[in-house]
Amino acid sequence: MRLFQKFLIKRPISTSALFLSFVILGLISLTKLEIRLLPALDLPSITVVTGMPGYAADEVESLVSKPIIETLSSVPGIKNIYSETIEGLSLIRIQLNWGQKPEIVSLDLRERLDKLRSFLPENSLRSIISRLSSNDRPVLELIIVPNQEFKELRYLIESNWKPGLERIDGVALVDIKGGHKKEIQIKIDPRLMSSYGLNPEDIQESILKENQSVPAGYLEQGERSILVRTGSSFTKIDDLENVLISRRNEERGVSLKEFSAITDSYKKNDLAILYSKKNVISLSIYKEAESNTIETVTHVLDYINSLKQKNNEYKIIYLYNEAEEIQNSFINLSLELGIGSCLAFISLLFFLKNIRASFLLISMIPLSIFSTFFFMKVFGLSLNVMSLGGLSLGIGMLIDSGNVVLNSMETFKKEGKSYLQSAFLGTEAVNSSVISAVSSTLIVFIPILFLDGITGIVFKETAITVSISLTFSLFIALSLLPALYGILKEKDLEVQIQRNPKYEIIYLR
Q1: Domain with 240 in it: what CATH number?
Q2: Are residues 259 and 205 located together in one domain of the fold?
Q3: Between the CA atoms of 233, 236, 241 and 242, what dihedral angle is there, to the nearest 10 degrees?
Q4: How far apart are CA 137 and CA 322, in angstroms?
Q5: What predicted TM-score, i.e. pTM, was given to this entire model?
Q6: Which residues have C-beta within 8 Å of that of residue 119, sequence separation ≥ 6?
Q7: CB within 8 Å of 310: residues ≥ 6 apart
Q8: Which CATH number does the domain housing residue 79 bear?
Q9: Are residues 439 and 407 in the same domain?
Q10: Which residue range forms the structural domain that includes residue 62?
Q11: Closest listed residue to residue 336, CA positions, set 376, 387, 398, 395
Q12: Per-residue pLDDT reduced to its tens digit, 265-278
């Protein structure tokens, strides 16, 4: 340790270049860090959803929920299983033990559900497994308020807005709620249907048979292969009206339009979202896990504003903007960092009565902070309120070790030693005390790294950033600070306060 210190102190240019390289790496890492409001919370919880349309809640529970629970209850790592059954839907929530990785358990669950599939009713749908994560929260929520009754608004958003929004880099999902959903309605005349000897099952079967497109092989043309499909899908109401419904014991079928009225209408609303007594549409934007929240939301807002300029039949009201929350939090934390640095500089100047020495000490703050960003990238941390809060929490402690080292070097300088000798002797004299002081502070944060649950996830990044910044400030105090001190001349370091009697009076007080 002693030889390594002397090596660094004797080579101030190389030492400065070493720490400057960490600062540059930190600035580069800062542009690549994931930006989010809070640390990623991948909670140990899994949800299994199984649909069974047309069945009552008690039937779904006995035919679907109970067999699934019995099958999954023996999966390792499961702490509790809760079930909720409603008409046509089975919802099973699985709570895992802390430390279990949901993605690993999900693979085991999927394997068991696939084996159980053949024992469930044929009408049941394939189970959907989803994991609860902080990414399940939308980064942008807004409502679209039509200026007047505008039933086509939802169709406009689904056909124009949604495809464009989902093509934006970083957007994972666009969820639309409310408004009027378009649907093709077939209103059958029961009397006419009976006169043709038909029933609803015959009509449904014929429509499904006509509305399908199946592959029929490939057509080889030189080096190209063209997929050939047979059948067709309905593209307009006329296609549906001309569907021939097969009749029992009759060679000739009857077209659907003969006994029914087919209209392009709107589905009855299961959910209504109201704003000032008006039916509105809610839009929720979800981002991809690794995407930058601020960049994603900015691109989404630019796209929405470009669409808004082309149509004045509605207005947009933003309910939640996570990017705005992040920016406000970062501004507040940056302001606190700036104020803390200024107050620290004023305090140093007041007690040291030395401007250059104060600047030398205060430079430890940006050096430590920017270098911390590099190690945050190495450890896979994100830039969020908790990690930045850790930096602001440790800002006052960053210069403590440097202050002790500087005062020790000043003591030897007053004894008549040269600046280089003072740098060697002063640093060596306080090595153990400075290291023990910083170590005792770091020990306080070590238990946080072993906390379980949400508390551990949230505060772990705070503990890591504080520990990294304090450790780096210790290396600066024991190497870079004495190296720079050793090359300064007396006239460069000392400030003759006596030249200004006003400041002398202030310091004497």
Answers
A1: 3.30.2090.10
A2: yes
A3: -60
A4: 10
A5: 0.64
A6: 67
A7: none
A8: 3.30.70.1430
A9: yes
A10: 45-132
A11: 395
A12: 777 666 677 877 77
